[in-house]
Specification:
474 residues; alpha/beta; Rossmann fold; 2 domains; binds nicotinamide-adenine-dinucleotide; 46% helix
């Protein structure tokens, strides 16, 4: 497997290294079982032709199912010129561990198509997406109980809609067809809250950490998010939403880094306005009241409290890790830190909140979407009015007994029954808080040095348990 530019390890080796570190803390080591957990169970590499204009282009694409210990497999699809087998295998493996940590009953998978969506028309992206889906169907690599893709880097609701439509046209009459893919638009069976789920999960995870006095004093920071200086790399789906939630909670987004460069304002950037500027001009640069930073990587080295890499892997490496000044790094992207950089940062005392936990909000809400599709009913539909009626009755009793009138504003907030978005956000919040404390408790009780290793130990133990209860097919 090829090594990557910034590390002695291939991307997949990085995960293996983290896995091996974790096995030192696993009491009943069954070597064969650990090898099985580590290995990718199925790799499908394909080439298919697509007519673009008058030319026939051969498209390279992948779907990797890392683990079948729970089915269906689950993981996003990435569109990028950097897509290769090693990357897709690694991202699929991360999905397995991620799902285990947040108690989502899926095996890990990932897909990728080697194209640059920024240089291809939307008609041609649609052609490629539909053809890729039909290739997956032919090989039985997609389906509500088999393998359920979702968005990732370079894809979104639009592509998920095309995948669903192609699946349905070839599996006409399948009443569960909607559950073949998640991250769909709400009008196509998607769930409210999926778009922002990964970024919101990142926010919940970091907020939880920042509320702990012991952890904050270990890096010389005050408790809470208010006033914390944050740098965001990548203003895409994950980075934009994470930045928005941090901003709303009173943190200060001092810098945003994108492909073309970065912008900086010590007093804080208004993320919604930056996003609008990006949409209007095609670049974040020259945003009013901010300084441009030409070399986008340099933004990662600015003085700050929290650094959120939310773009791509291997962006913090042996050559820049020593210059990183953040006290906390929240891995919103998958694999943004190489193993060499990880060691350097750990020695510097930086708290790293690892990707296999921190960006699990997306798959958590994808799980909720899958459940919604299989149950064929919107969350809250059955109980919303019932709850409102119950609450109204209760309020009446309280008013009678206390002989006090409750204000209209108070009534509004107490009476309201749960909407789909309320249930999704609360399910996600609960999942992220629980996940955080499970990792932190294990780190403490097993005297593990860092959160990444503790997260791997937690995940591996759960998968071992699952295999042991399941048995191995003779
Ligand atoms: P996206 O395509 O919506 O956004 C990525 C952003 O990063 C884009 O705005 C892009 O221009 C920017 N970018 C690319 N190269 C850059 C560079 N060198 N420097 C700075 N910015 C750069 O993708 P996304 O869905 O937000 O995914 C981002 C990361 O989060 C990926 O690692 C992905 O695997 C991970 N992730 C995504 C989800 C999800 O639900 N979308 C879930 C889990 C993990």
């Amino acid at each position: 497997m090829s090594k990557n530019k910034t590390s002695a390890y291939s991307f997949f080796n990085c995960i293996e290294k983290n896995f091996d570190k974790a096995t030192r803390f696993i009491s009943s080591i069954k070597k064969g079982l650990l090898e099985q957990i580590k290995a990718c169970n199925a790799v499908y590499r394909m080439h298919f032709p697509v007519k673009i204009g008058k030319e026939i282009k051969v498209i390279e694409a992948y779907r990797v199912q890392h683990s079948h210990h729970k089915l269906p497999c689950k993981g996003g699809i990435r569109y990028s010129m950097k897509v290769n087998q090693d990357e897709v295998m690694t991202l699929a493996a991360l999905m397995t561990y991620k799902c285990a940590i947040v108690d989502v009953p899926f095996g890990g998978a990932k897909g990728g198509i080697k194209i640059d969506p920024q240089t291809i028309s939307s008609e041609n992206i649609e052609k490629i997406t539909r053809r890729y889906t039909s290739e997956l169907i032919k090989k039985n690599f997609i389906g509500p109980g088999i393998d359920v893709p979702a968005p990732d880097y370079g894809t979104g609701e639009r592509e998920m809609s095309w995948i669903f439509d192609t699946f349905l046209s070839l599996r006409s009459g399948d009443v569960d067809a909607l559950a073949c893919v998640t991250g769909k638009p709400v009008s196509q069976g998607g769930v409210r809250g999926r778009k922002e789920a990964t970024g919101l999960g990142v926010f919940y995870g970091i907020r939880e950490l920042c509320h702990l006095k012991e952890d904050m004093s270990s890096v010389g920071l005050d408790v809470g998010l208010v006033g914390k200086k944050i740098i965001i790399q990548g203003l895409g789906n994950v980075g934009y939403h994470a930045a928005t939630f941090f901003h709303k909670a009173g943190a200060i987004i001092i810098a945003v880094a994108e492909r073309e460069g970065a912008i900086y304002n010590e007093k804080g950037l208004n993320v919604s306005k930056v996003f609008l500027h990006l949409k209007n001009t095609g670049s974040i640069l020259n945003f009013p009241e901010s300084k441009n930073i030409k070399n986008t990587e340099k933004a990662l080295e600015l003085e700050c409290d929290i650094l959120i890499p939310a773009a791509l892997e291997n962006v913090i490496h042996v050559n820049n890790a020593n210059y990183i000044k953040a006290k906390i790094i929240g891995e919103a992207a998958n694999g943004p830190i190489t193993p060499e950089a990880d060691d350097i940062l750990e020695k510097k005392g930086v708290i790293i909140v690892p990707d296999i936990y921190l960006n699990a909000g997306g798959v958590t809400v994808s799980y909720f979407e899958w459940l919604k599709n299989l149950s064929h009913v919107r969350y809250g539909r059955m109980e919303k009015k019932f709850r409102e009626n119950m609450n109204a009755g209760l309020l009446q009793v309280i008013e009678t007994v206390s002989n006090k009138k409750i204000t209209i504003e108070e009534k509004k907030s107490i009476l309201r029954g749960p909407r789909e978005i309320d249930l999704i956000h609360s399910g996600l919040e609960d999942t992220m808080i629980n996940g955080f404390h499970k990792i932190r408790d294990l780190k403490k009780s097993s005297k593990i040095d860092n959160m990444r290793t503790a997260a791997f130990v937690l995940a591996i133990n759960k998968i071992i348990d699952s295999y042991e209860k399941l048995g191995i097919f003779p």
